[in-house]
Structure formats: C-alpha cells, structure tokens
C-alpha cells in the first residue's frame, strides 16, 4: 500500500490486504479444528479480537467491503501549482483532464461505453491526502501513535503475525 502510485492502486491494495487478513484466521481454524488445545486457545483469541478496537475495525471494514463495496477511504486533493499546458506529459490523445478528490485523472473514450478515468501523471505540485473513516486509535489497550491507513494496517499485520506465533508457541508448550 505504501508504494502505491495513485489512490486507485492504494484502494485495490487495501481491499486485498483486508480480505487476505481474514484468511489468516480461516486457515488457522481449518488446520487445527481437530486439536482440542486449539479450540480453547482460539476461543480466548476471538474474545480478545472482539474487544479490541483495531480488530473490530478490520472486521467491520471487511464486511463493508464484501457486502457493500465500501472501503472507508476518503481523499482530499490540493493543487499548489499546475500548468495545464505542460504538466501532463503523457496525456492520451482525445482525453480531457478531470480533477477529483482522489487526484487528477484523464477521461478517455468520453461518451462511449468504454469511457473511463485513468490516473494522470503530472509534473505539477499536487498533493492527495488519504483518510480512513472511523480509524481506531487504540490496539490491545494501548494508544496508537498514529492512526492513518498505512499505520493501522501495519499494526494489524503485526498482530496477525503475533497471533500465529502465539499459537505455535502455545502448541509447543502444551506438547511438552
């Protein structure tokens, strides 16, 4: 997500992250469903996740993405300097420039069924800020230093990694 070159790419990567994240617990449940130690351990983890603002956020946003196609991302574009005559070196022929809250786009194939907006590259000074709706500021009882989209995704990823590590460690302890 942090290497995305435009907002559409960021949104695609965020949705992929959210959906893939849910698969972590699906795989754990599938792989260890016959292990009675797992059932007890996982039951406690589910309680932990249900009470945690960050985990609840990702659970809710996944449901909204799957059921409503809403990813919770909002944007604001600020143009400091832009010369429409020379700041669009790759503008496709017969396209127009469209400015949206998600950035600057080329409108191609206008008036046809193939009409589309594609992200424009510009040499102008344009800043698009990205916000995530209802972003949590607490995880596991601790205040997050930042609660922007990238930070909360990294924290959630780290939590999922620790969930797997915790199960592996728990499994090793129980077998001794």
Can you tag this structure with a few keywords?
176 residues, alpha+beta, 2 domains, 3-stranded antiparallel sheet, two-stranded antiparallel ribbon, 7 strands, 20% strand, elongated
**What pattern of helices and strands is seen along the backbone?**
HHHEEEEEEEH
Largest sheet, spatial ordering of strands: 2-3-4
Continuous helix count: 4
**Helix proportion of residues, in percent?**
40-55%
Q: How many strands?
A: 7
Compute the average pLDDT.
93
Query: What is the domain total for the residues?
Result: 2
What oligomeric state is this?
Answer: single chain
- The rounded distance between the terminal residues' Cα atoms is 41 Å
Structural class: alpha+beta
Shape: elongated
User: Which value, in Å, is the CA radius of gyration?
Assistant: 21 Å
């Amino acid at each position: 997500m942090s290497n995305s070159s435009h907002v559409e790419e960021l949104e695609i990567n965020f949705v992929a992250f959210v959906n893939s994240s849910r698969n972590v617990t699906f795989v754990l449940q599938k792989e260890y469903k016959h292990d009675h130690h797992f059932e007890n351990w996982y039951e406690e983890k589910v309680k932990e996740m249900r009470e945690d603002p960050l985990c609840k956020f990702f659970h809710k946003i996944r449901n909204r993405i799957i059921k409503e196609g809403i990813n919770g991302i909002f944007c604001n574009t600020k143009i400091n300097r832009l010369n429409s005559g020379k700041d669009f070196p790759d503008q496709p022929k017969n396209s127009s420039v469209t400015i949206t809250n998600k950035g600057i786009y080329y409108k191609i194939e206008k008036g046809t069924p193939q009409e589309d907006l594609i992200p424009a590259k510009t040499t102008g000074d344009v800043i698009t800020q990205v916000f995530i709706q209802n972003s949590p500021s607490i995880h596991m009882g601790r205040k997050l230093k930042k609660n922007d989209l990238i930070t909360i995704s990294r924290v959630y990823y780290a939590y999922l990694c620790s969930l797997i590590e915790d199960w592996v460690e728990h499994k090793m302890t129980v077998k001794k």
